[in-house]
Design a protein that fits this description.
376 residues, Nucleotidyltransferase, domain 5, 2 domains, 11 helices, binds 5'-O-[(R)-(carboxyoxy)(hydroxy)phosphoryl]adenosine, binds zinc ion
Length: 376
Amino acid sequence: MEKIILAIETSCDECAAALVRGDKTILSSVIHTQLETHLQYGGVVPELAARAHLETIQAVVTRALTEAGCGYQDINAVAATIGPGLIGGVLVGANFAKAVALARGLPFMGVNHLEGHALTVRLTDDVAFPYLLLLVSGGHSQILAVLGVGQYRQLGTTLDDAVGECFDKVAKILGLGFPGGPAVEAAARLGQAQRFALPTPMRGRPGCDLSFSGLKTAVRRQVDALLNTQPKGLSPQDRTDMAASFQRAASDCLTDRVSQAMIVFRRDYINQVGYQVGYRAGDPAHDPAGASMRQEPTLVVAGGVAANQTLRQDLAQLARQQGFRWVAPPLALCTDNAAMIGWAGLERFRLGLIDPLTVPTRPRWPLDEMNEGGRA
Ligand code: KG4
Ligand code: ZN
């Protein structure tokens, strides 16, 4: 019998619960967004988010059980995000999950939210370790070599803002609303990307680090310059053209940095015999499809910004050119959800990486600070 896990995600403004089965079936995935709570502030207010999670968590979990046709007696394990994220919200979800685990005597897995994003492709596709991952969300922009569950090597990270944050700020500057990413993408579809010349920070530089604050500042400057000559404000065409120009520059930055990372990944993780420290080649739990033998490099994109079609197309093209297999989760599993936490929980459960109920929640928790046991 395949195991069924109940998973909870409350690290930002989505209150989410899911039931996932070991055969990769998502039995239910409920996402309650707090859009209305935060809309008037133009961003997520941590204290309000925590209170809203507290009000909705019970109903969200009950709905996830009902939609899956399950009761608590059908669950074999419980998982929840225990960090990184807005700590008030994380506490609500993690404590709810721990209470269920305690009451039902079930194993509990505390999941790193970023690991949830990183492993999603193994839920949706047949992807073996190791793979190259571009992780792009509201709080993170990283390029990682994913070697196994709990085994991540950072190849590059942003020196300033996360790219998702940059999408959100640009949306605000252009008055496109919140959340910014989808709004910028929708506006960009109607605009001319050639209209505004914007910088692509770090492009062509050695290494795999990223930077976005210069791009954001350039958008603000050009918008200010326009406003100086147009007292009536931005026209719809100005907005869509700037959205398109920004999206093009952001995707160019990311694609350039990933192309650098591909070279490093091939050199350090693919073209080596017995290549990784701590990587258990041949261990079916770590390398079920024998990717280390086939030596087929894979590029994966994950996190909320991975929902962006322009970025997906650019990365797919790069992968084709560089001889990488290209895999991206479906859009609904790119942005925050609990199914990804359930899957990461199941992967940990299979490896015996069960946490005590005393495991702490963590506001900050970089992926490459995880070790074999999953804790820094
Ligand atoms: O992973 P996620 O849902 O939450 C975090 O863990 O941060 O990512 C949210 C981020 C936000 O900054 C949002 O604007 C961005 O992902 N995003 C997008 C798109 N959809 C969401 N950015 C660009 N294009 C999109 N279609
Ligand atoms: Zn996320």
